[in-house]
Design a protein that fits this description.
The complex is a heterodimer of chains A (221) and B (365). Chain A is mainly alpha-helical and 221 residues long. Chain A has one domain: MetI-like fold, CATH 1.10.3720. The longest helix of chain A has 32 residues. Chain A is globular. The N and C termini of chain A lie far apart (43 Å). In chain B, helix 3 crosses helix 4. By secondary structure, chain B is of the alpha+beta class. Chain B is 23% helix and 33% strand. Chain B starts with a strand and ends in a 6-residue tail after the last strand. Chain B folds into 2 domains: 230 residues, P-loop containing nucleotide triphosphate hydrolases (Rossmann fold); 120 residues, Beta Barrel (OB fold (Dihydrolipoamide Acetyltransferase, E2P)), CATH 2.40.50.100. A 6-stranded mixed β-sheet of chain B has the order 7-8-9-3-10-11, sandwiched between helices. In chain B, strands 2-1-4-5-6 form a 5-stranded antiparallel β-sheet, with helices on one face. Chain B has a 5-stranded antiparallel β-sheet with strand order 14-13-12-15-21. Chain B is built from 9 helices and 21 strands. The chains are: A mainly alpha (221), B alpha+beta (365). The interface between A and B is medium-sized, with 19 and 27 residues.
Chain lengths: 221, 365
Amino acid sequence: MDWEALWLSLKLAGWTTALLIPLGILLARAIAWRRFRGRAAVEALIALPLVLPPTVLGFYLLVAFGAVSPLGRAFEAVTGDALAFSFAGLLLASLVFNLPFAIQPMQRAFAGIPADLREAAWCSGLTRWETFRRVELPLAFPGVLAAAVLTFAHTLGEFGVVLMVGGNLPGRTQTIAIAIYDRVQAFDNAAAGTMSAALVLISFVAIALIHGLSDRRGGRG
Amino acid sequence: MAEGLELRVRQRAPIPLDAVFACAPGELLALLGPSGSGKTTLLRIVAGLDRPADGQVRCGGARWFDAAAGVDLPPQRRRVGIVFQHYALFPHLSALENVVAALGHLPPAERRGRAARLLESMNLAGLEERRPGELSGGQQQRVAVARALARDPAVLLLDEPFSAVDQVTRRKLQRELARLREEVKIPIVLVTHDLDEARLLADRIVIVHRGATLQAGPPDEVLLRPRDADVARLVDLSNVFSGTVSGAGGGTTLRWQGTSLEVQRNPGFAPGERVDWVIPSRYVILHRRDRPSRGERENPVDGVCAQCLVLGDTVQVALEVGGEATLHFNVPVHVARRNGVEPGARLRVSLLSEGIHLMRPRSHQ
């Protein structure tokens, strides 16, 4: 069992979820309620990681992170470190390939809130922020929870993009999914088996958690 | 009127609006019109949820909206109480918390007590901890009214508040509204498409059609003496005709389909003038076959029964007069049977002169 790789995966998944959920709430809310030009294009762009081969997505991200790209150069200028093959690069890539998993459940949840509930809140004197906190967020919570768990679990399991962008540097970019591949390549099936079982277990618990929690909330509604 | 509600809006797009109305404190004003007429939009403009291109909204002496001056207060600063058509209660909060949510202007320690008293005054004591999903339609509506009143509003807005409940509950809630308006001395604006509801509850009615306010006045005036044929049709008066005023003799008479009709009230039309006129069906009296009846000699009109529709205890009769006009009136089923009212029968009716109302003809005719 490669504890270092598991820890790295958990760290990556945790950071991705923590950053992507607040950002995703803003984006999902806007897509659910606002009518703006190019909304269909934005939605398509967000869904793209679902259908693209991870290698294609990884390739473009690698190019964008490279030492000659504006992003890569800016990152290096600020941190003195390369973006490609680093944890920061991995995190950035993770935010991108998790967009559909985070946005789509939350978008559905926000779209399901009738417009007159928000208007009733405003007419009751609640500010926009209070309306968000006391009406929108509690009602959209099952969607937010689903988004968080899906993002977390999907990050743990992502392989292609991580390999393309992060390479396979133990302790830096070698996540558990890569470590499993690494072990298999080295004919170490016992270790690969243990780690695979751990991943299955974590994923199963995560998905069961969403269903359990949303069932309980639904039952009380 | 400084303390009441005044609205004046005008715009061409996205939907054309041309509306003016006022509602005094303690007055219940019904915005009456068919679905899609824009009455809900007018209510939303008062609440600050929709924004007209041009106009003003003032309430309680405060200016809420003034396009020319660039004033546009958000709903949070308008002190409106609004009851939405489907109530829009917060489904995740209890009845009490729904009301507490609208009490942000009170110190936190006083909110729950005040909310409980409001619910109690709406006959909801004991249901404070229920969520909206666990309340009946009528109870939900009362929670919505309690929440609307919680803010101590300067105006109460009701958007078709009785449309989502059954008939029995509707009557009960309507009685409660009648009682409530004795207690709260603020302007109340009720949006409805139901004539009976407007007549039952409102002090004044404003007819709204295609975003325009066509006529305002007490229910009897608007429903019996519409301004023109458009309003007449909107208030479900089907006997709308055209005729010519003639001044022969003492009073005004009306030439119509070859007969002369006496008219009691003439709002100033000169002899020879073309007018539209309307008679509510209850002023059309069927003559009995066997013996003379009330109003026998008053404006007798002959016709051929074109259609009889039995609706419960009454028969709706369509009577063809002079080949081109059709008079509609109702008679009880037993009267229809006794007098041989059936399609093809020749019938005589009286048009009571007190019910005939003359109107300026529509300009496009």
